[in-house]
Specification:
elongated, mainly alpha, 82% helix
Length: 190
């Protein structure tokens, strides 16, 4: 029996995204509980460095640099971006006091979600849809029955394929907001 894409891909995606949020909240709570809340101030720059290092994958993919194998670099990109995002969320904490941090965190959360869609859902959903189609063909179903059987999965997959239209512009927006945040700190901390 075929397992729908929703159960196989979207539920694990929601779980992983929820882990990002809960780990961030848990770490922030722990720092406050231990009266080490000031450490959060330094986690933002560290998280940013993690995310910047993760861009080696993108630079390699666009042939700007030539280093390592793409699958390994993708794994490094995913891991460093995830850890960096947690560190930045802990840095932001629950004490947003200006619009710029709110916008930066919102763009970070959207960017992480769109990255997870690409990693966790789109690639696997495409493979699963092809696999399910082959299974139904081999079971002797007619083409119209197969299309009817896979129509919801096909619709979900078509929607997911537009993820790069969100991921890249949001990544650029996050970068710009991060630079503005840095400049505002340098200007107003004097």
């Amino acid at each position: 029996m075929k397992v729908p894409i929703f159960i196989k891909q979207i539920i694990p995606f929601v779980f992983l995204y929820s882990c990002l949020i809960f780990i961030s909240i848990g770490l922030d709570y722990m720092l406050h509980y231990l009266n080490l809340f000031y450490i959060g101030r330094y986690l933002g720059p560290v998280g940013t460095v993690f995310i910047l290092i993760s861009f080696i994958y993108s630079l390699n993919k666009h042939k700007i640099i030539h280093i390592g194998s793409p699958p390994k670099l993708l794994k490094i990109h995913e891991t460093l971006a995830f850890i960096g995002s947690i560190l930045i969320l802990v840095h932001a904490g629950i004490h947003f006091n200006a619009i710029l941090p709110w916008l930066a965190i919102l763009s970070l959360l959207i960017n992480v979600a769109s990255g997870l869609i690409g990693k966790f859902i789109l690639k696997k959903a495409n493979i699963d849809l092809l696999s399910n189609r082959k299974e139904l063909v081999s079971s002797g179903m007619s083409e119209s029955e197969i299309e009817k059987n896979l129509s919801f999965d096909s619709i979900v997959l078509k929607g997911l394929k537009k993820w790069r239209m969100i991921h890249l512009p949001i990544a650029y927006t996050l970068g710009i907001l991060s630079l503005l945040h840095l400049f505002s700190i340098l200007i107003f901390s004097s």
